[in-house]
TrEMBL record:
<dbReference type="Pfam" id="PF02092">
    <property type="entry name" value="tRNA_synt_2f"/>
</dbReference>
<keyword id="KW-0067">ATP-binding</keyword>
<dbReference type="InterPro" id="IPR008909">
    <property type="entry name" value="DALR_anticod-bd"/>
</dbReference>
<keyword id="KW-0648">Protein biosynthesis</keyword>
<dbReference type="InterPro" id="IPR006194">
    <property type="entry name" value="Gly-tRNA-synth_heterodimer"/>
</dbReference>
<keyword id="KW-0547">Nucleotide-binding</keyword>
<feature type="domain" description="DALR anticodon binding">
    <location>
        <begin position="561"/>
        <end position="664"/>
    </location>
</feature>
<comment type="subunit">
    <text>Tetramer of two alpha and two beta subunits.</text>
</comment>
<keyword id="KW-0030">Aminoacyl-tRNA synthetase</keyword>
<comment type="similarity">
    <text>Belongs to the class-II aminoacyl-tRNA synthetase family.</text>
</comment>
<keyword id="KW-0963">Cytoplasm</keyword>
<dbReference type="InterPro" id="IPR015944">
    <property type="entry name" value="Gly-tRNA-synth_bsu"/>
</dbReference>
<dbReference type="Pfam" id="PF05746">
    <property type="entry name" value="DALR_1"/>
</dbReference>
<dbReference type="GO" id="GO:0004820">
    <property type="term" value="F:glycine-tRNA ligase activity"/>
</dbReference>
<protein>
    <recommendedName>
        <fullName>Glycine--tRNA ligase beta subunit</fullName>
        <ecNumber>6.1.1.14</ecNumber>
    </recommendedName>
</protein>
<feature type="region of interest" description="Disordered">
    <location>
        <begin position="60"/>
        <end position="79"/>
    </location>
</feature>
<keyword id="KW-0436">Ligase</keyword>
Length: 674
């Protein structure tokens, strides 16, 4: 079957846009093909710094004929309804429609519309220019005299269609005065000549000969493997950096890996400073020696094969890195010369948020809040206040001004250098964490106090000014802050009830549900253990885990079935009687041994579960509930709840209410599926 080859050749596409652009191109084209009736077998998109490419295989030569039935208005309907039906069906008169009957709705008009298929090339000629004009670049530009937008100036379009053993046909269309053809170009420097291509296989081979590796993942593999081999030969290892690897693979079409070095004297700088400097300025990878220490070497990825073996390229990178590291050393020494807290007055000049004041005002709030939180998490209040006071001070330093991603970390280095206690210095770094689901969580009491203060102040502040996340929009990272609070509390096993307004508490509940579900908890079990006023994160987590363990056992499953049966009976009878049963069971009204056994069992379990819950022993509480399985089963086997004697019936309904209330001490089993 025929194959589509599309290449959009342009000036350099920013690396951060490339992978998304390839996915968007594939999605846009394949969706349009399906909408046009051109069902395909496979599709794959590719991207390099200078081209977006797509191959779609197994396409039909034309779309199939279709027959559509369009239901119209009733016979005798008003004329406007008739006219609208005729227009939508493409009919000139009702003579072209049929009348069909429905026993309930009467006679109505139906149009049978035959749509002949179309040649794939004709359809693609309309589809492709529309996709180009509507392509969703995050940022685009306009050049020349046209109105066409693209991420960078578009230079050539290749668009061919044809079967494997046939000469392909160029799909005719134009975009911004650039007509489609079958000509592309190789590497900008190593093979810039024009290349005529027919279909995907010879296109890939021709690009390879012209020093272009089309697949970004293959370029990544080349860079990774060559860098590791080069490092291994020197007894070194590459510091893994997936983000940098993705970026570098998006900067080159023909990756060539080399190694450079810098003056070992610079190793006196914090290694994070060296790595950030080399990464940000030269897009190079850093290395470690056999002992795990940072080595005075780096990996360069060039986009060319140099005739001198890369000597000039390496020397040029070494000069730039030496200059950048000298700048970093200057910043570092200048920062060390000034006590960290001397930078605090400068925070008054920095606006945190127009409605929430300066960064200094925020620091004042953090100091107060960290001091209040400290006793609850086992931290010394004065040390927590000191750490909170210094937490944002490094924002005024030269190093953080140059590399904002080092905030907190540089604060720890400077605090340590000026003699602050280790727990305070650590808290300055760790109070930002966790920054994501895989990031470390603070574990030292002072760090925990300041980290919680930082995130709770952020959340309560933005809630107070009604700046809440909406949909996918969360410019102040409030979802991340809430998840950070949840992880700090749960992973440190903290009893830390959240004293926040109801709306913010509901937001925490939503984030906690996401967190628990991501860790494998069933959504219904999470709902079962969260109530509107649940403010103890650890308690909710422990209840969900205990409930999951109970329901994974046969006793738990059978007990749930018995609960559901009893709850359904109780709900139906309460609705019929117009009242709720309070669960007060009269021993004198118990007639059968099975209901007597259940009554005594529920009383005993109620007391035991209450004791376990008071000690936050939810697994113990669930284990007690599991013992009810046998008496519940026996009750429903032998006892008729709706007895003819009203007193006996009421007592049995109270017994079911007592069972329900006992189980609700731990979770709302009514929200559990099954």
């Amino acid at each position: 079957m025929p194959e589509l080859l599309l290449e959009l050749f342009s000036e350099e596409i920013p690396a951060r846009f490339q992978r998304r652009a390839a996915d968007d191109l594939k999605k846009a084209v394949t969706n349009a093909l399906v909408d046009a009736g051109l069902v395909y077998e496979g599709a794959k998109a590719f991207v390099t710094p200078r081209r977006l490419a797509l191959t779609v295989t197994g396409l039909p030569a034309r779309s199939p004929d279709t027959r559509e039935e369009k239901k119209g208005p009733k016979v005798g309907a008003p004329q406007p309804a008739i006219d609208g039906f005729l227009r939508s069906a493409g009919l000139s008169s009702l003579d072209q429609a049929k009348v069909e009957s429905d026993p309930k709705k009467g006679d109505f008009y139906v149009a049978h519309i035959n749509k002949p298929g179309a040649e794939a090339i004709a359809l693609l000629s309309g589809i492709l220019p529309k996709i180009l004009s509507e392509f969703p670049w995050a940022k685009s530009m306009r050049w020349g005299t046209g109105s066409f937008n693209w991420v960078r100036p578009l230079r050539a379009i290749t668009a061919t269609f044809g079967a494997e053993n046939e000469e392909p046909v160029v799909i005719p269309f134009a975009s911004n005065a650039i007509a489609s053809g079958q000509t592309t170009f190789g590497h900008r420097f190593l093979a810039p000549e024009a290349i005529k291509v027919r279909r995907f296989d010879d296109y890939v081979e021709a690009l390879e000969r012209a020093k272009v590796v089309l697949d970004i993942d293959r370029r990544k593999d080349i860079i990774r493997n060559d860098a590791e081999q080069l490092a291994f030969a020197q007894g070194l290892t590459v510091i893994a950096d997936e983000g940098l690897l993705e970026e570098v693979a998006g900067l080159v079409e023909w990756p060539v890996v080399m190694m450079g070095s810098f003056d070992p004297e610079f190793l006196k700088l914090p290694e994070e400073v060296i790595i950030a400097t080399i990464r940000a300025n030269q897009k190079c990878f850093c290395l470690r020696d056999a002992s795990g220490k940072l080595a005075p070497n780096f990996i360069i990825t060039a986009n060319t094969t140099a005739t001198d073996g890369g000597a000039v390229i390496t020397a040029g990178n070494e000069r730039v890195i030496r200059a950048r590291l000298s700048d970093a050393a200057f910043f570092y020494q200048g920062d060390l010369a000034m006590p960290l807290e001397h930078g605090l007055p400068k925070l008054e000049e920095t606006v945190f948020h127009a409605k929430l004041g300066s960064q200094f005002a925020r620091v004042e709030r953090l100091v107060k809040l960290a001091g209040e939180i400290a006793p609850q998490v086992g931290a010394d209040p004065e040390r927590a206040k000191r750490a909170a006071m210094l937490a944002k001070a490094d924002l005024t330093t030269g190093m953080v001004g140059e590399f904002p991603e080092l905030q907190g970390l540089m604060g720890r280095y400077y605090a340590t250098a000026q003699g602050e206690p280790a727990d305070i210095a650590t808290a300055v770094e760790m109070h930002y964490k966790p920054l994501g689901p895989t990031d470390k969580v603070p574990t030292e009491p002072v760090s925990i106090a300041v980290a919680l203060a930082d995130k709770l102040d952020l959340l309560t502040g933005f809630w107070a000014i009604d700046e809440k996340p909406t949909g996918s929009r969360d410019p102040f990272a409030l979802r991340r802050a809430a998840l950070g609070v949840i992880r700090i509390i749960s992973e440190n096993g903290l009893r830390f009830p959240l004293k926040v307004e109801a709306d913010l508490l509901a937001f925490f509940h939503d984030r906690l549900k996401v967190s628990l579900r991501d860790s494998g908890a069933r959504h219904d079990l999470v709902d079962a253990v969260i109530s509107a006023d649940s403010n103890d994160i650890l308690q909710i987590t422990q209840r969900a885990e205990a409930l999951s363990a109970l329901l994974s056992s046969a006793d738990g499953q059978n007990l749930l079935a018995g609960y559901k049966r009893g709850a359904n009976i109780l709900a139906a009878e309460e609705k019929k009687d117009g009242k709720s049963y309070a669960g007060v069971v009269s021993q004198d009204a118990l007639k059968l041994p099975e209901e007597t056994a259940l009554a005594f069992a529920v009383d005993a379990v109620h007391s035991a579960v209450s004791n376990h819950v008071a000690r936050d022993d939810y697994r113990g509480a669930m284990a007690e509930l599991a013992t009810l399985r046998a008496p519940v089963d026996a009750f429903f086997t032998a006892v008729l709840v709706n007895d003819a004697d009203p007193a006996v019936r009421a007592n049995r309904l109270n017994l079911l209410a007592r069972l329900r209330d006992t189980m609700h001490l731990v979770a709302d089993f009514g929200k559990v599926a099954g």
